[in-house]
Amino acid sequence: MEMHSMSSTLTKPxxxxxxxxxxxxxxxxxxxxxxxxxxxxxxxQNILFSEYQxxxxxxMAVINELQQVYQERAVNLVEVASGYRFQARADLSSSLTxxxxxxAPKYSRALLETLALIAYKQxxxxxxxxxxxxxxxxxxxxxxxxERNWLKTLGQKEVPGRPTLYGTTKEFLDYFSLTSLxxxxxxxxxSKKQKFEL
Length: 198
Fold this sequence. Notes:
single chain, alpha+beta, Arc Repressor Mutant, subunit A, 2 domains, two-stranded antiparallel sheet, 5 strands, disordered N terminus
């Protein structure tokens, strides 16, 4: 792989060892590639480079260079909520689906509406979800979302009965390739929503 031109050694001395910028870039690239889950800057700094006095700024500079290297390739280096990962470019996804024998799970409209309400209105109680949707939320829906680790309990609301408050998790953000809730698409108005079927 062709690397950007780099200085031979990082200018500041590292704790006990020195590391070339090229080796640093190779280690970061390999670590993100082999990691089963997205890899955060903190995890890289505390585990992978614990023997070096490496600043977050230096690590971010290497990640930014790698993102540039992969920008026009079939695989991109992207940031999601829990860190960085490699993933196929979005415009190639439909062509790659035949490689996977497992079909993507199909979720009911009720489950998707419940998930959307939690994502946009969190923290929210089950009763508040039911009030907006106008129907009861089945235990199966809540169980499915909790088992997928897309939801977590955030505590209890300080009202009579102390209902559980729900919110989304980093796994939810990772699954939908979001870095934070700010990246959620804007809500469409009810009149537009009625024109589309979920």
